[in-house]
């Protein structure tokens, strides 16, 4: 929803003023829009336009190698004929003018009248109307222009910058238009500045297939699918509408409408690119990002431009518009033939394990397997209690970490002692788990491992308390938290203290301490919210135990079973 | 809300895969993140990172002149120490490594451990922690890193690309950090992939001042203000936290968090830039856009980097990262000293008006004034009925158009006849109103004007019907709509027909026809929705008259008063 404005009625003019201030080193404002400072060599002036609300289209596409000017209407409203005339007249360099825009009635009329006015004055003016949206009509001539604006404008901008004649630029623009297809889906409608309801809504779990970019909803609603299914659907539909003599090379755009963000677009491209290649196409200079938007609309579209030699030359040509900059020259400064070094953490020299150490190592291997299994069992529960104050990934993080540790330990040489095994397990845990708790567990296991000597002839029970103390110290030092902060320390530190102070034999002492740890973990439910968390969520955590303290209690309890 | 994903738990890895495919000509994936293909001349490797969900930060900032690599954690989750180590090791070019990231506990631990591992192996590794968020703590050392990541990373990337030593790059990074301040506001929280509630919410009409970029809400909620007030608040707050020896030149970033779109950011910049200049600063290479985001969070931040000579050199240096490309060279191809031609539409030669024409002209002048007044009275009502099926701007458009027509007519020479006046009025209407109805009214008035001869000795009553018929024909031809489409034709065409067929004298015929027009306009309330409109809104239009047909009826009725 649009939140930043003064008088909503002046939104379009106000934002244009800021835009012109921002790019005053390269653009000039004229009545009705914006033009680029003219090139030193006169060119055909490609004038793009339509209503505003589609940035980077249209004003963001003005600059060397792209549009010579943009007519800026009010939001989703065609600019007036006089404003088209004004921008074109200011941008004309004596080589003729091309007015290009999407296929909408208001634009057809206003740009059409302006073209008449310009031609009457002897300025050779042509019109290229973009019609890429395959969902908007079966007949090509009736189709709307959406993200395909970009491929058509880019083709003409490059042709003009190459010094081609107006006949050539017009021909290349129409060629790009005939070879461009787009299909999009809408997840949510956009809201006009000052309005409190969106222009349309999409039911939760649904998506509108065949979106427009002016608040037109999709032509039909479908159940929202996985990225994989969405990418498949879009790819199939666009490739089904293949132009004549398609060839095997294509330009591709995955375009975000406004609130569908970059990571989502990359994720979708991951599905689309292989499918296009499977279909026998080579992808040339793909673009994934926000190129033709619709205010804060949620949605995405796939555009394919079937290339031939001259379209590929235009598609790959440099451009330096405000919102679109391409000039691969800087990439010449990098080594194109290079294989990245894959880093492996150097292993310490392994100590030959004593008989006692080998016996203990067997226990460590069993524990590693059992604990990974335990975390798999508890993953869902740990995720649920984490979701109250966090992002709900604690269970998964613990599974990732303990499984990585188990695998590293399984793969260790049979002769490895407990210290070596715990080191390898700890490193693997830190490597795979990420986040804060993963690295704390991993690094602290390594610290604990360092208290053990694989060459020792025997392991006194006190060694256990010593290793645990080292583990706990590492947790405190690295984590920087304190008891009562609702972290794993709330169960670990009472455990360590109880184990250290106990006079019972190790199995009993460990089990008693583990019971305390479990109890203290449950007690964290009454502690106040974690610091630094998003408020509403943190408040929800009161009444629920801390996931880190809880998993710690579970693991300590499990470990107690190996001493009997 | 994030809508495109497969397994939410794999979101970060999946999106990175797509990203690497997209930029495979310049980037290489390594365990834990991404590195640039190395430069031909070895440089200090600046490694940026943290959790994902902030694109273009962090992976989008990898490339010549910027970062050598990015460590990519899960969403809002620190990457593991091993992954930091892996990326740094792969990116190291023998000139040392700088690990740089925002001031968050998980990153401090993981990057810190990795730095130890790298230094142990003899790779000179330094750490630069970004602390720009003035809202997060009064003490600089405790502050979070948010959009200021960008200025600090950019400074070091430029220094490294310039071949500076690791000591120099580290020093410049710390200098940029000490001279960067950011304050942001949140309008809405972001939603994690797969989650159905945002990490936090902001009450309608409120904004959270002092946002974080990991779902941390603002430190205090305030009433949402106009863009003007928001810009003033942000500017004052950031300038109040001025560093030592500020100087008079600053780099500026207006950063969108994800769903606060470009037009809004430009609009805000329009308020901020003048205030920074009033404070005596010169703005150098401002950046307005999405540089450090937080998934689909709504919000914006202002960052100021106080420049000195070496920081300005770094801030303005070229860079060619995936998501940030800057190399002003192409601008050398444009004429820097240029004043845009402001186009004026050429006037036809004026015909000396006859006595009869002059008399009629007086009526036209009066009508122009009365109709503009009438539209001002009806603006709100016309906007209300337009809002049911459209964007609610019909009233405003009619006021703009009729006022422009009146002004042009008022400024016409006293000797101008009715044809000349209607031509001038029509052109001004089309010029100022924009949209579809504005240009239809303007162009059709001109067509009507052409049926009148200012030199004529007398004007027969039939002339009125003739002019109206020409006006209606133009509306039909240009507009391409049909009767029953719920447009102004639904009142205009019945009027024209009635006027043409009437045997009464003109005043009576006109008034009778106008009554029919008004009735037919009311009848449009029962017509089915306009085609091509957003569905939920279009359905709402049933039961409400069409605004275009309604204003047409009002104006025709008004015109009837000049014939008695």
TrEMBL record, chains A, B:
Keyword Cell division: no
Residue ranges occupied by any DhaK domain in the UniProt entry: 7-324
Domain of life: Bacteria
GO-annotated cellular components: cytosol
Keyword Coiled coil: yes
Gene Ontology biological process: glycerol catabolic process
Molecular function (Gene Ontology), one example: ATP binding
Signal peptide: none
Lineage: Bacteria, Bacillati, Actinomycetota, Actinomycetes, Micrococcales
InterPro entries: DhaK_dom, DhaL_dom, DhaL_dom_sf, Dihydroxyacetone_Kinase
Keywords: ATP-binding, Coiled coil, Kinase, Nucleotide-binding, Transferase
Coiled-coil residues: 357-384
Boundaries of every DhaL domain copy: 362-561
Matching SMART domains: Dak2
Pfam families: Dak1 (PF02733), Dak2 (PF02734)
Annotated stretches, region: Disordered: 527-550
Protein name from the UniProt record: D-erythrulose kinase
């Amino acid at each position: 929803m649009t939140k930043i404005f003064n008088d909503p009625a002046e939104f379009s003019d106000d934002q244009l003023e800021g835009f012109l201030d921002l790019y005053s080193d390269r653009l000039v404002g004229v009545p009705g829009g914006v033009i680029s400072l003219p090139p030193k060599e006169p060119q055909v002036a490609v004038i793009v336009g339509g209503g505003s609300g589609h940035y980077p289209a249209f004003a963001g596409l003005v600059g060397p190698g792209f549009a010579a000017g943009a007519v800026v209407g009010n939001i989703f409203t065609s600019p007036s004929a006089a404003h088209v005339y004004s921008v074109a007249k200011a941008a004309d360099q004596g080589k003729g003018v091309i007015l290009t825009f999407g296929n909408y009635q208001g634009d057809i009329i206003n740009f059409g009248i302006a073209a008449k006015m310009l031609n009457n004055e002897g300025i050779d003016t042509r019109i290229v109307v973009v019609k890429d949206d395959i969902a908007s009509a079966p007949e090509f001539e009736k189709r709307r222009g959406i993200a395909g604006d970009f491929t058509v404008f880019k083709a003409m901008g490059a042709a003009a910058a190459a010094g081609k004649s107006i006949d050539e630029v017009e021909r290349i623009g129409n060629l790009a238009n005939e070879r461009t297809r787009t299909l999009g889906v809408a997840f949510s409608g956009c809201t006009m500045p000052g309005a409190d309801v969106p222009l349309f809504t999409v039911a939760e779990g649904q998506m509108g297939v065949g979106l427009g970019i002016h608040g037109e909803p999709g032509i039909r609603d479908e159940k929202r699918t996985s990225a994989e299914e969405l990418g498949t659907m879009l790819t199939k539909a666009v490739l089904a509408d293949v132009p004549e003599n398609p060839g095997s090379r294509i330009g591709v755009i995955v375009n975000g409408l406004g609130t569908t963000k970059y990571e989502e677009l990359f994720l979708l491209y991951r599905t689309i690119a292989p499918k296009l290649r499977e279909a026998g196409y080579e992808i040339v200079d793909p673009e994934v990002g926000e190129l033709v938007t619709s205010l804060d609309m949620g949605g995405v579209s796939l555009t394919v431009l079937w290339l031939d030699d001259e379209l590929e030359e235009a598609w790959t040509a440099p451009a330096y518009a405000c919102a679109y900059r391409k000039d691969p020259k800087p990439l010449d400064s990098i080594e194109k033939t290079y294989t990245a070094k894959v880093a492996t953490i150097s292993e310490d020299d392994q100590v030959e394990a004593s008989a006692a150490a080998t016996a203990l190592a067997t226990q460590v291997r069993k524990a590693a397997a059992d604990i990974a299994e335990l975390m798999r069992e508890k993953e869902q529960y740990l995720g649920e209690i984490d979701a109250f104050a966090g992002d709900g990934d604690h269970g998964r993080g613990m599974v990732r970490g303990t499984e990585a540790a188990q695998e590293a330990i399984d793969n260790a040489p049979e002769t490895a002692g407990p210290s070596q095994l715990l080191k390898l397990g700890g490193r693997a845990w830190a490597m795979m788990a990420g986040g804060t708790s993963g690295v704390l567990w991993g690094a602290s296991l390594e610290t604990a491992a360092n208290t053990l000597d694989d060459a020792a002839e025997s392991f006194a029970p006190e060694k256990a308390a010593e290793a645990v103390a080292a583990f706990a110290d590492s947790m405190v030092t690295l984590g920087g938290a304190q008891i009562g902060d609702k972290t794993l320390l709330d169960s670990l530190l009472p455990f360590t203290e109880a184990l250290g102070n106990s006079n019972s034999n190790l199995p009993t002492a460990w089990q008693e301490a583990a019971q305390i740890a479990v109890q203290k973990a449950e007690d964290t439910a009454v502690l106040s919210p974690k610091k630094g968390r998003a408020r509403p969520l943190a408040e929800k955590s009161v009444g629920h135990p801390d996931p880190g303290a809880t998993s710690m209690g579970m693991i300590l309890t499990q470990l107690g079973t190996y001493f009997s």
